[in-house]
Specification:
CATH topology: Rossmann fold
Radius of gyration: 14 Å
CATH class: Alpha Beta
Shape: globular
Order of helices and strands: EHEHEHEEH
Helix content: 25-40%
CATH superfamily: Resolvase, N-terminal catalytic domain
Number of strands: 5
Distance between the termini: 30 Å
Strand content: 15-25%
Structural class: alpha/beta
CATH architecture: 3-Layer(aba) Sandwich
Number of domains: 1
Strand order of the largest sheet: 2-1-3-4-5
Largest sheet: 5 strands, mixed
């Protein structure tokens, strides 16, 4: 990513039951994006969809995947490591596509940020769960 460019950020959020809302996740991640001077291009939110569902049953996750492959965003931000995955079996199921399309990943709760030199040096983009217990 070039320094000084406005990054196009996608926020990924998910709640597993209809009684819950993604508002807290979204509020925190929006605040981080604003502090970093990043422009949120779109929010991808799945409501009432558990992590055990496949991507084809998570419409927002599926749209995010297509957006990544089309290189319409520069970075994906999520509240936690278990949000950008499209299934519980693959918590970061989008990681191969992020890596292939050179799209960065920022995970608020784990402090992973591959837009920063330290994040890239640690290889966080390839293994953001390395310091997170399963």
């Amino acid at each position: 990513m070039l320094q000084g460019m406005t990054q196009r950020i996608a926020i990924d959020a998910r709640v597993s039951t209809g009684e819950r809302t993604p508002d807290d996740q979204l509020w925190e991640v929006r605040a981080v994006a604003e502090r970093m001077g990043r422009r949120v291009a779109e929010e991808y939110v799945d409501h009432g969809v558990g992590g055990a569902r496949r991507r084809d049953r998570r419409p927002a996750c599926d749209r995010l995947h297509r957006t990544i492959v089309r290189r319409e965003i520069d970075s994906v931000m999520a509240w936690s490591v278990d949000r950008p995955g499209c299934s519980r079996q693959q918590p970061i199921g989008l990681l191969p596509d992020l890596d292939a399309e050179d799209v960065d990943l920022q995970l608020h709760q784990q402090g992973v940020d591959t837009t920063m030199p330290a994040g890239k040096a640690k290889g966080s983009k390839r293994s953001p769960t390395s310091s997170v217990s399963a």
